[in-house]
Amino acid sequence: MTSEALVMLLAGLAVLVGAIVQGAVGFGLGLVAAPVVTMLDPTLMPGAIQVVNVTLPLFTLAAEWRRIDWRGLGFAALGRLPGSAIGALIVVYVSTRTLGLFVGVMVLIAVTLTARAVAVPRNGWTITGAGFASGITGTATGIGGPPVALVYQNAKGPQIRATLAAFFFLSAAQSLIILWVVDHLPARALASGALLIPFLVAGFLVSGPLRRHLDGSGVRGAVLAVAALSALALIAQTLIG
Fold first, then answer.
1. I need a labelling partner for 74 at 20 to 30 A (CA). Which of 66, 80, 164, 197 fits?
2. Residue (of 53, 57, 28) closest to 222 by Cα position
């Protein structure tokens, strides 16, 4: 097996796990996969992750689009646009090494907020703010789920999954366009992202039967622990390397 094939296999396994989590609870693909892909080959980021980010929500929307909170989606999209512009500036002007460190730190912050389940009121201001934060981190690192997920944490499962799926699809599409405009979307990243889609599909299919188990605090805690360990390893690799 060539080194390139090994990278894609390991990245695919990370996407598989992330897709299982996101298919079950509404978010988690970037949280799990982004630090792993960045460690394996930082030149693929954030383009490859954005390709899978724009694909996975379509499967959720096919089943649950009727549960979308359209008002909240509008506020989130409104905040996302200026956040994406800032995220694009980070990608353009920050080195690959620093971007790896940024990904690691963002994952740790996201894991901490998700684990603590901080109570956030859901209104136009908080949803717009969450969309803004998601735009920055999502465009720069491929991890845009936690800010919006925190705002919707007290909503019912189908509404969370449907609304986040619609937001993630629009967000990833927007990020891909912006990365292309600023000339930071290499063909190799797009091709690698396309190669990861079969792992994504497999993960989504597995998430259905396992959904009730993944909602449990034990598995949720294990997933957050894996994401945190991946982020710490990425930070260590960036600082040492």
1. 197
2. 28
Region for residue 142 given its phi and psi (left: phi exceeds 0; alpha: psi -120 to 50; beta: otherwise): left
Cα torsion 169, 175, 179, 180 to 10°: value is: 40
Nearest to 157 by CA among 69, 78, 55: 69
The label of the residue with tokens 């919707």 reads 152
Q: Are 148 and 164 in contact (CB under 8 A)?
A: yes
69: left (phi over 0), alpha (psi -120 to 50) or beta: beta
Q: Are 131 and 78 in contact, with CB atoms under 8 Å apart?
A: yes
Map tokens 């497999």 to a residue.
Answer: 202
pLDDT tens digits, 145-177: 778 877 887 777 678 788 888 998 999 999 899
DSSP state of 123: S
CA distance 231 to 14: 13
> How far does CA 28 lie from the centroid of its chain?
6
CA 99 to chain centre: 15
Residue-by-residue DSSP string for 168-226? HHHHHHHHHHHHHHTT---HHHHHHHHHHHHHHHHHHHHHHHHHHHHTSHHHHHHHHHH
Model confidence pLDDT, tens digit, residues 65-91: 888 999 999 999 999 999 999 988 888
